[in-house]
Amino acid sequence: MTIPEQAQLLRIYIGEDDRANGKPLYEAIVLKAREMEIAGATVLRGAMGYGHSSRLHTAKILRLSEDLPLVIEIVDSEAKIAAFLPELDRMMTSGLITLEKVQVLQYGTNGR
């Protein structure tokens, strides 16, 4: 699998407790991206954040997990990301999605 040097970064901001068909939304998104042969996806867990509701979500010692913020980053060609967006729309009921152009310097290894 290759990614063009000029690619697109899809960034999805959701909550850890968000669900899609009974399973964690982040898991559903990553598995759908893999099924569609998107080059790569990573889920990052935030220590603190807030969204449109302005409700603070934090990982303090006394509160181990209060719907912590998650960011899912997906990188591939503009065409593959565009094909993925309708699938994402079917899964998500809230959250923030951003797109930006990125320059891919390296993906995987050559010859190994």
Automatic annotation (TrEMBL):
It holds the Pfam family DUF190. InterPro entries: N-reg_PII-like_a/b, N-reg_PII/ATP_PRibTrfase_C, UPF0166. Belongs to the UPF0166 family. This is DUF190 domain-containing protein.
